[in-house]
Structure formats: structure tokens, C-alpha cells
Amino acid sequence: MTTPRPSMLPAAVTYADQGWPVFVLGRTKRPVANCEPCAQAGPDHDREACPCLTCHSFYAATTDRNRIVAMLAAVPDGLLAIRTGTAAGLAVIDIDPRNGGTLDRSLMTPTAAVATGGGGWHLYYRHPGHPVLSRPLTGAPGIDIKADGGLVVAPPSLHPTTGRPYQWAGTRPVAEMPPALIAAVAADPPMTKPAPPRSCTPARVSSRAGEAGGISNPAALLAAHLAAVARAPEGRRRTTLYGAARGIARMVAAGHLTTTEAWAALTDAGHTADQTDRDINAAITGGFHAEGVPT
Ligand SMILES: [Zn+2]
Ligand SMILES: [Zn+2]
């Protein structure tokens, strides 16, 4: 009843040889569980420098052939994935038609492309050099950018729900991002309305510093939200991230940080807590919507 699995090694080596760091995800696209010491480690643990073979999702990505062989052996039913962003020199546009994503030819010029096993498309572009956050493309439902702080599942992995392989579509090389697309991925989401008048009520401000409506120290409040995510025990991480997203959405609404800064902070916190990009995006989008703050 099991589908014969394609060998990941030749593809993994091909990617690594062109400078794309690779790693493995679990069969269901979730990060491989961290080892006990890494699972217990606090937010000060340096995930980038951690020597573990498969801990911390894309932080384990490597171009070292021996490590790749060992990684694939350690997670024999895992999915092959590529760390995107400056680490690979890649920015990937992820089009998910199930969520309304469509190919916009005015933005998305021809380039190397993967047909995901789930009916979507990954368009591989050269990273433009300046930071490009991994997040949904503003104003384009069903389209995500996978760049800094991101990852893509790569061919010949089998899609976890359909069982169909991710496949390269054609043989185009990875192209430069066209200027219109660079502008689109850099665009800040529309600013939210200014702080509601209740924040001017002196009684609230003085009585409950740190609460929404009277944020006396935004930096400390933001740090507290992010620390809660980092400290959350396994099993509580998704709901904690959602709660932090709601709290930070209120800070965005009050004008203490931009939507882009909120996405970056929450995405990084989610990765610290070993959440998938999909779960992170869902938590942020859900938290912002619950607070009536546009993403
Ligand atoms: Zn570890
Ligand atoms: Zn570690």
C-alpha cells in the first residue's frame, strides 16, 4: 500500500552543488522534531550554529554532501526541502490555486518552475540581494513569497496529501526577478487606522501599563509576546503564536510597529518554536483578522 519513494539524494546533491542549502522535513511537511537538548534550549540557543543534523528546520540546511547523506538516512521518509533567501540566493513565488492563487504574467516572468504535487506552482527567482521577507504577497490571495526565513519543498518529494511528486516543469534557468515583482514583494501592506481614542484615557494608561489601549513600553511588550512563543511547551506553541499574533496586531493597530515588522517578528518567533510556514501564516493571518487588523 506504500508508494515506492523516489531517491532524494541525486536531486539533493544537484541543488547543493548550485549553492542551495537543503534539509529534510517530516513526511507531513512538519519540521523534524528537535533532539531533547535542543527542544529544552531557550531562546538564546543559536539555531544557525547548532551542529545537530536535523534540528531547527531550515537552520539545519547544508550544502555539505556528507551531511546530506546522513540527513536523508536519518529521516528516510522525509521530504527534501531547500532553504530560501540569501542563504540560497533564491526568492520563490508560491502559487496556491486552492486558496485563489493565479499566475500573474505581468509580475511573474518566465523562470525555473516546479509543479507542486498539490496543484500549485513554485517560481524560482534569483534573490535580489536586499532582505525579502517570507510572507503572503500583499493583495494577492493564494500567493506567498518564500525568501529570507523561508523554505520550499523540492522535487522529487511526494506531496503529503496527494502523494504526487513535486516536479520541475521545463528546463528554464533561474531568472532575475523583474522590477515589478521586486516592488510587489517589497510593498508594505496598507497602513492600518491610527490608535483608537481610548488610548488617551489617562486612567487606563496609568492603571494597566502594558495592556492594549495604553502601551507604555511597546518594545518590552513586543519582546514579552515573542518570549511567550519561544517558551511555549510543545503542544501549546500554535495557540501561543496565535495569541501573540493577536497582541501584536493590536500594537500594529495602535501604530507601534508596521505590519511588515510584525510579520518578520512573528515569523522568526514561529520558526524558533519549530512551526511550519503554513502554521505561522495561519496564526498571523487569524490573529490579525480576529483583531480586525488587515494583513
Ligand atoms: Zn539538536
Ligand atoms: Zn540545536
Automatic annotation (TrEMBL):
Residues 12-181 form the DNA primase/polymerase bifunctional N-terminal domain. Signal peptide: none annotated. It comes from the Bacteria. InterPro entries: DNA_primase/pol_bifunc_N (IPR015330). Residues 189-211 are annotated as: Disordered. Pfam families: Prim-Pol. This is DNA primase/polymerase bifunctional N-terminal domain-containing protein. It comes from Frankia casuarinae (strain DSM 45818 / CECT 9043 / HFP020203 / CcI3).
